[in-house]
Amino acid sequence: MLNFVTIVYSKDYPLLELQARSFARFVDPEQVASIHVVLNDVDEAGLRARLAPILPAYGALQSKVRIVGGDELLLGPDRSSRRSLADRVLIEGRHRIPFVRKGGWRGNNGYRTQQVLKLGAARIAESEQMVILDTKNLFLRSFDRAEFFSEGGAARLPFIPVRSEYHRNWLLESLNALQVKAPDLDTLKTTTFSTPFPVRRSLVLGLLDEINERFGSVQSLFGSRRRPSEFMLLNAFCLRADPTLRPWFEDAPSTALGLWPTYSQQKMKDLIARIDDPELLSLGLHNRAVSMLTADTRDRLFKAIARRGISDRATTQSVLDATSALAG
């Protein structure tokens, strides 16, 4: 069975309704062990209250959904090997420091704690096979476990060459953090770093154990001056043993479509035109990209989501308008 985890914060939480509706529309409850909705917000109580009305959108899967606070994943006697005074004050207690507090878990940088929580979610996963999501992801069709995991247990997702500067930097920082010798990056392929991201729970737990041994905790690593990424840390951990990433990962065709705020209007229009491709499994709607869509592109998106049976136009428009307002 699959364990799904999605990270939510207050600037994009309305998108969870579309994700929930896509779960209800396409996901067989018999293949789901649990769905964990993890809060990445300085005001967890407020965000939890805003999410409560969305939960019925999961339909028959609602009983398998649990909203989880960040403390459950990151704090406690078995969550770290040591906690320095700086960690206690500047990470765990950051929400208490005026002018320093930010919007993520316990007042930390939300972008970085999002990565921390994705890894920490393995500690509460209820099955070996996890699928990590962001709030922006929604499913576009039905699927079975074999699309995410091979018969041998390898997570199936696209492998990509290390071409962009940020990809290279994330990987090098991750290799350095784990003291793994860097391979030839000109010929290397890593997994993608986008969601949905399938991964085996035991792999993530092994990585967390090493991080705890080296840095005390995963939040301490991401709270330092180092700049790894969650998915490149998983790659670095695997690359120590095998440059092909076996047996943990297996190359597979991309079935995800994503809309990002860095894209031009023309590129977003072209991508939306592909939404009826029957091979596409998921759509990613970045909150800032939603606010940038033209009226025509939004109209095409509304119609496509309605054709998939996920949501009617009025509901989709309400969700996207609320998300755009939060994105500013």
What attributes does this structure have?
328 residues; Spore Coat Polysaccharide Biosynthesis Protein SpsA, Chain A; five-stranded mixed sheet; three-stranded mixed sheet; 13 helices; 16% strand; Glycosyl transferase family 2; DUF6492
What name does CATH use for the topology of the largest domain?
Spore Coat Polysaccharide Biosynthesis Protein SpsA, Chain A
The CATH class of the largest domain is identified as Alpha Beta
Alpha-carbon distance between the termini? 39 Å
Basic shape: globular
Oligomer: single chain
The overall strand count is: 12
Residue ranges: pLDDT <50 for 5 or more in a row? none
Specify the CATH architecture of the largest domain: Alpha-Beta Complex
Q: What does the radius of gyration come to? A: 19 Å
Q: Taking strands numbered 1, 2, ... along the chain, how are they ordered across the largest sheet?
A: 3-2-1-4-9
Q: What is the number of helices?
A: 13
Q: What is the residue-mean pLDDT, rounded to a whole number? A: 95
**Roughly what percent helix?**
25-40%
Largest sheet: 5 strands, mixed
What does this entry show, briefly?
By secondary structure, the protein is an alpha/beta fold. The protein contains 13 helices and 12 strands.
